[in-house]
Every structure is written in C-alpha cells, then in structure tokens.
Amino acid sequence: MRSAAAVLASDSRYAYSHGPMRFDDPAWKATPLRTGLRVISSLVRKRFSPLRLAPVRYDGGRTSIYADLGTPLGLLLYRYGVKDTDIALMKKLLSPGDVFVDGGANIGLFTLAAAAQVGATGKVVSFEPAREVRMRLTQNVALNRLSQVQIVPFALSSGPGEAAFRSFEIAGAGLNHLAPSEGESGTVESVTLTTLDAVLGPTDRRRLALVKLDLEGAEHAALLGAAEILQQVRPHLIIEIEDEHLRRLGSSAAQVLALLEGLGYRFFQAHRPSTDQIALSPFGGLVHARSGPNVFATTDLARVQARGVRID
C-alpha cells in the first residue's frame, strides 16, 4: 500500500515530495507576478467552501477544468497547471476522428485533452466506477460541452460481474481500487464490472487509436477482457505497471509484459528532452526511473515516429 502522503496527493504522477508549493516550477520564472498572485489567491479560496472549486484553463487553453483547492492536484492545476509527459504523448498520437479509451479516468485530465484532440468527429470512452470522482469527471465534461465523451460508470476487468471497490475521498481518488483489504481507510462500494471487448463495438474498434489504463492493479484483468481488441486492432497503450498493485488482484508486472509481448508489443517510457519534444526510451525492466509507473506499448513503431515522436 502507498504511504498516507501518497494517498493525500491523489495520484503519484502529480505528487511532489514537498507538496504543491513548487518554487522550481517554470511558471515562477515565466510569469512570477501572476504565479505569486495565484498562490495567494489559492490560499485564501481554499479556506472557504463555496470558493474551493474553481474553473481554470487547461491543456493550453483548449478546455477548462474544475480545480478543487482542497486537494494537492487542484492546487497544482490552479497555480501552475499540470504538465504531464504521457498526456503530451497521447496528444501526439491522436488525430481528429480517432477513438481513445481512458481506463481509470478520475477527474478527466486525459479525457479532456483527448476530447480536444479527437474533436467532435472523434470519441473518448471514459471508464470511472467511483461515484464521487465520476461526478467531478461529469462536471468537467459538462463544463466543456464535450458531446464526444462517453462516461462509462463501470470498472474494467476480465469479465462481467459485480465486485467490491475501495473509494477514498476526492483528494485520494487516484488510489481507488478493486479488491479492497482490511485496515484501509476510505469506504467500500459495489461496482459493476465490464470488459473493453463488450463496450467497444465494430465502429469504435475501427477508429481506436490508443488505450490508457490506470486501474491501480486491475490492468492485467482489463487486458484479458480486451483480448479481441488487442488481437484485431492492436492499439497503442499507455498502461500503469506497478507490481505491488497488480499482486493485489493476483497478477504481476511480468504477466502483463508477457501477455503483451506475445501479441508483438514493444515497451517504452516517455520523456521530454525539451518543452516541445516527446521522446521514447526502451523499457528494459521494472524500474520506472524516468516517468513513474506508466509504460507505453506499441506494435507499430513506424506509426509512432511518423507522428513526430523521437525514439532514443
């Protein structure tokens, strides 16, 4: 289990060892006055419940998102914005009219950026089983009037059914997970299980370009439930691989990698050599030193390079 500090940080990708007060953020150098005012404003607003939820511009101004100033992620969004390498990679790989799957959508960081990228002719299918965070996701989609987003209130797995699901308060929603154990905080709710093969029909499959899975240990099960799609479509994948979480559901990082290797996938991690460039480095093991636990998997490296992604 992650530490209490990690839970409060909502998601390890957006957690910083010294919290959301980031004096090393480029915003301080680029716009020091504005950034300082945003920090002061956030400290005031977070003390008053009616002012805690603030809409801010997101994804370079292409969309807006509600920043909950009572959470570390909300403070980052309000003060500096979120600059995520995997989101930048996703945007490189999506075109107008594409279909994108956001497995474990949370409040919609990937969903909103993907929706802007695929446009009104495309589609984003966002899976989020937890009630409270799904409400936030729905608010963010409605804020931007994104009719191309389909929110699915189910958990992805290897087959249909019902299961117990651990839900934390909104600040820790990035750690919500199946197979809850005793001694954890949060609450347990019952959720409906489904599979990617069941949800995505032929029309969506023909346009499916990329699948992102951040399921706190259910990634292997979700891949098993996407057997037809993986064999027939072979979309690019951005997938969280954390052995500790996978073991919670009886799987392992080795099993995930073996399953995908058998289908011809190769593995990389994304990084940014510069602010306007995305590069991929070969993923050679279970140490996620550069960009956390997310791994990019593809069967078509030439198609990735054609989108302007550098291969190291």
Provide keyphrases for this structure.
312 residues; alpha/beta; Rossmann fold; 9-stranded mixed beta sheet; 4-stranded mixed beta sheet; 25% strand; globular; disordered N terminus
Compact summary:
The chain has 14 helices and 15 strands. The chain has helices at 4-8, 26-30, 32-45, 72-79, 85-93, 109-118, 131-143, 196-199, 202-207, 219-224, 227-232, 243-248, 253-261, 301-306; strands at residues 53-58, 63-68, 99-103, 123-127, 149-152, 155-156, 161-167, 177-178, 187-194, 208-213, 236-240, 266-274, 277-282, 294-298, 310-311.
Structure description:
This protein is an alpha/beta fold and 312 residues long. It contains 14 helices and 15 strands. It has two domains: 76 residues, no CATH class; 227 residues, Rossmann fold, CATH 3.40.50. A nine-stranded mixed sheet has the order 5-4-3-10-11-14-12-13-15. A four-stranded mixed sheet has the order 6-9-7-8. A two-stranded antiparallel ribbon has the order 1-2. The protein is globular, with a radius of gyration of 19 Å. The relative contact order is 0.12.
